[in-house]
Amino acid sequence: MEFTASQIAGLLNGTVEGNPDQKVYTLSKIEEGKPGTMTFLANMKYHSFIYTTRASVVVVNQDFVPNQPLEVTLIRVPDAYTAFAQLLEMYNKTKSSGKGISVHSFVSPSSTVGEHVSIGEFTYIGEKSVIGKNVHLYPQVYIGDNVTIGDDTVLYPGVKVYNDCIVGKRCTLHAGVVVGSDGFGFAPQAEDTFKKVPQIGNVIIEDDVEVGSNTTIDRATLGSTILRKGVKLDNLIQVAHNVEIGENTVIAAQSGISGSTKIGKNCMVAGQVGFVGHLVIGDNVKVGAQSGIENNLKENTFYLGSPAQEISKTRKIYVHWRNLDQIVKRINVLEKLLKNNHHE
């Protein structure tokens, strides 16, 4: 597709500095820019590339001040990173425009499908489900009975949404996501066996949630497992039964959240973090990578380590641990001196 710098500036509420009629056809990284492409500069670590890039248009922050002449057309915006993310989203939508309902898909006659929906080959939609407007279901998606999928939501290939679950508007579920599989509930028996506890709840995913590939979100034993509005989950995350994740919380890959733990809003959780069950994590909490969380965490705190402690304490402990070998040697020397003095 072809756009001019002035058209793009209009979309981004930006201002053009240079040739407003400069045409671009696609996007590029600033260090690999080619004529006819558009790129952006948000991180000043890449500042030098704006003077050598061959891209035709560069999106920059309003306060950007070049220290040498530029040959590119600039579009100045309040936040270059956010503006470019907006462009990438629009570009992605043009690439994934719907193709209608495939004849090789199955939609139960008792289900409702909204306008401008795309349903790919071998996708299955069960009974009494509701698919909103502008929904894009890629091939081999499974939608169970009595499921709701909100407007403008995208489900990539192989996504499975079990019976009675709800996915909100403008959500993105990447390939292999499973929503509503059974929670891990087994009652120990006297004969050292385990009896399965039926999981009869559901999963509720609110609006504007994104879930990475091969992440699993288990249905509740009773009630609902809930991902609140704006939650972002990375790939390969396990969310157990009856967990609740608060608004705009982000969690990186390979983390696991045990049953009935409640995580607050605006939290940031790094990769490979493990939460035990039945915890309460406050709002605005940050957790460092590979931490093990076994206690409730107060709001507005930063935890690190396994078992996790407040980061200031963990850093102090790490300093001593790093010097442990020298500390042991010093203690050995002191013990020898004390022993010799005692004998004297």
In a few lines, what is going on in this structure?
It contains four helices and 39 strands. The protein is α/β, with parallel strands linked by helices. The strands form six sheets. The protein has an eleven-stranded mixed sheet with strand order 10-13-16-19-24-27-30-33-36-38-39. It has a ten-stranded parallel sheet with strand order 8-11-14-17-20-25-28-31-34-37, with no helix packed on it.
Brief descriptors of the model:
alpha/beta; Udp-n-acetylmuramoylalanyl-d-glutamate--2,6- Diaminopimelate Ligase, Chain: A, domain 1; 3 domains; ten-stranded parallel sheet; 28% strand; flat
Q: Kindly state the mean pLDDT as a whole number?
A: 93
Q: Count helical runs.
A: 4
C-alpha termini separation: 92 Å
Give the spatial strand order of the biggest sheet: 10-13-16-19-24-27-30-33-36-38-39
Biggest beta-sheet profile: 11 strands, mixed
- Rg, nearest Å: 27 Å
Tell me the β content: 25-35%
Question: What is the CATH-assigned architecture of the largest domain?
Answer: 3 Solenoid
Briefly note the CATH topology name of the largest domain. Answer: UDP N-Acetylglucosamine Acyltransferase, domain 1
Structural class: alpha/beta
Work out the number of β strands.
39
Whole-number tally of structural domains: 3
Q: What is the overall silhouette?
A: flat
Query: Helix fraction?
Result: 10-25%
Tell me the name of the CATH class of the largest domain.
Answer: Mainly Beta
**Uncertain regions spanning at least 5 consecutive residues:** none
* CATH homologous superfamily designation of the largest domain: Hexapeptide repeat proteins
